[in-house]
């Protein structure tokens, strides 16, 4: 079914009885050309682009729970392309361009809102760093505007500009940045992949990866064995566990990142705002809730929940930046499992096992990367060669030392 205003009007006048399911619920076949492990944003977008860009439709997406039940539904929904390093800058620029045409591409409302993102700075050193980043963004073909203190005040008059410890010096405005509806992104890609013949198989946990003579031959699942000529691991924070089924040890650690949302409030925060001295970021959802988060919990875990000390830390940063939110009641919090690489940048690459591919290590950047990740991973699987905008996301960079250290924290997990 194709969605349109006319279809919406017709269903409204006929009792909403003509809608059909978004996607089929097929039983797994015995054999596929390609099996993707993981039914989140990256797995579903990969399946979609395998079918659309490369004509490969004998594809199965295996999800141990329900589609979109992992990190794609557990994040703060921020979309941006304000990266600095060569390699990251091109990739996220490509992703943002895909975001801008995604609703027309999928015929699905993912509620992409380019409301603008402002990264605040609070010292001369931070100003210089953001000026360099802004120049790199402009040179890449994206947008960036360096704001002074009064320029920030015009956009964000509610901040505590005169905080003694962290006065606001200015900010870097990325006008094309913004947010999207996280679950709608998963649903849109799932619907698009299904329409092109991909099998989306839910409640099908992978329990083993079959390898013979150095080549992948299929997977073992809770719904029986499935043969496959190529297998892609797209399981976010569980990537290390899944890769271990094939005898691999990936250079990642899994950490919890908490997020929070308040009760619905009248519109007050028009942009996405990032605090330069507390790793705090906030936006306001279409329902009126303030959606915000901060640092990792800084210990390895597979739990989709956080701890109270980090919750307190995030609330303190929010109150430091904008005391006006102090009386807003927090409705709920949740945790996503971040698969952190030593340099804070992702991995999209073939493995030493013929026919086995990995797409992981997204750290803080997984949601905004969904379109480009799927585009590039599909290209890699279909052609056995990296896409040009993901050419630096190789596994061997951790052996050779050609790191993409976006945060400048060094190649140590505990410094993320």
Describe this protein's structure:
- The chain is α/β, with parallel strands linked by helices.
- The chain is 28% helix and 26% strand.
- The protein folds into two domains: 194 residues, 3-Layer(bba) Sandwich (FAD/NAD(P)-binding domain), CATH 3.50.50; 151 residues, D-Amino Acid Oxidase, Chain A, domain 2 (2-Layer Sandwich), CATH 3.30.9.
- It has eleven helices and 18 strands.
- The strands form three sheets. Strands 1, 2, 8, 9, 10, 11, 17 and 18 form an eight-stranded mixed β-sheet that branches. An eight-stranded mixed β-sheet has the order 5-6-4-13-14-15-12-16. A two-stranded antiparallel sheet has the order 3-7.
- The mean pLDDT is 94.
What would a concise description of this structure say?
The protein has 416 residues and is an alpha/beta fold.
**Fraction of residues in H or I helices:** 25-40%
Topology-level CATH name of the largest domain: FAD/NAD(P)-binding domain
What is the name of the CATH superfamily of the largest domain? FAD/NAD(P)-binding domain
What pattern of helices and strands is seen along the backbone? HEHEEHHEHEHEEHEEEEHEEEEHEEEHH
Query: What gyration radius follows from the Cα positions, in whole Å?
Result: 22 Å
Secondary structural class: alpha/beta
Low-confidence stretches: none
* Count of spatially separate domains: 2
Tell how many strands the DSSP assignment holds: 18
- Average pLDDT: 94
Please name the CATH architecture of the largest domain: 3-Layer(bba) Sandwich
Taking the alpha carbons of the first and last residues, their distance comes to 45 Å
The biggest sheet amounts to: 8 strands, mixed
Number of helical elements: 11
- Shape, principal axes of CA atoms: globular
- Percent strand equals 25-35%
């Amino acid at each position: 079914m194709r969605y349109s205003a006319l279809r919406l009007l017709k269903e409204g006048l006929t009792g909403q009885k003509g809608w059909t399911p978004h996607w089929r619920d097929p039983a797994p076949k015995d054999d596929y050309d390609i099996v993707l492990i993981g039914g989140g944003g990256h797995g579903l977008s990969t399946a979609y682009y395998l079918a659309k860009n490369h004509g490969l439709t004998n594809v199965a997406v295996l999800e141990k729970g329900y589609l979109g039940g992992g990190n794609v539904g557990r994040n703060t929904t921020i979309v941006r392309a304000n990266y600095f390093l060569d390699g990251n800058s091109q990739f996220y620029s490509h992703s943002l361009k895909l975001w801008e045409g995604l609703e027309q591409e999928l015929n699905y409302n993912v509620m992409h809102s380019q409301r603008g993102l402002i990264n605040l700075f609070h010292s001369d050193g931070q100003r210089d760093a953001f000026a360099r980043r802004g120049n790199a963004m402009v040179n890449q073909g994206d947008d960036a505007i360096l704001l002074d203190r009064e320029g920030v005040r015009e956009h964000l008059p509610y901040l505590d500009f005169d905080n003694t410890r962290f006065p606001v010096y200015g900010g870097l405005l990325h006008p094309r940045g913004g947010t999207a509806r996280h679950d709608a992104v998963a649903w849109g890609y799932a619907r698009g992949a299904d329409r092109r013949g991909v099998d989306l198989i839910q409640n099908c946990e992978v329990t083993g990866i079959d390898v013979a003579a150095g080549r992948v031959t299929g997977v073992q699942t809770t719904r029986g064995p499935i043969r496959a000529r190529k297998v892609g691991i797209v399981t976010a924070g569980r990537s290390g566990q899944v890769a271990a089924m094939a005898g691999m040890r990936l250079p990642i650690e899994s950490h919890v990142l908490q997020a929070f949302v308040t009760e619905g409030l009248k519109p007050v925060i028009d942009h996405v705002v990032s605090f330069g001295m507390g790793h705090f970021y906030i936006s306001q959802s279409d329902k009126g809730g303030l959606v915000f988060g901060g640092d990792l919990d800084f210990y390895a875990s597979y739990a989709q929940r956080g701890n109270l000390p980090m919750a307190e830390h995030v609330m303190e940063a929010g109150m430091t930046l904008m005391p006006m939110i102090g009386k807003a009641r927090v409705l709920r919090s949740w945790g996503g499992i971040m698969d952190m690489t030593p340099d804070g940048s992702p991995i999209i690459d073939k493995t030493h096992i013929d026919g086995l591919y990995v797409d992981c290590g997204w750290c803080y950047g997984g949601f905004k990367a969904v379109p480009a990740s799927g585009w590039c991973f599909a290209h890699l699987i279909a052609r056995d060669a990296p896409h040009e905008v993901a050419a630096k996301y190789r596994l061997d960079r951790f052996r050779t030392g050609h790191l993409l250290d976006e945060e400048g924290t060094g190649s140590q997990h505990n410094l993320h």
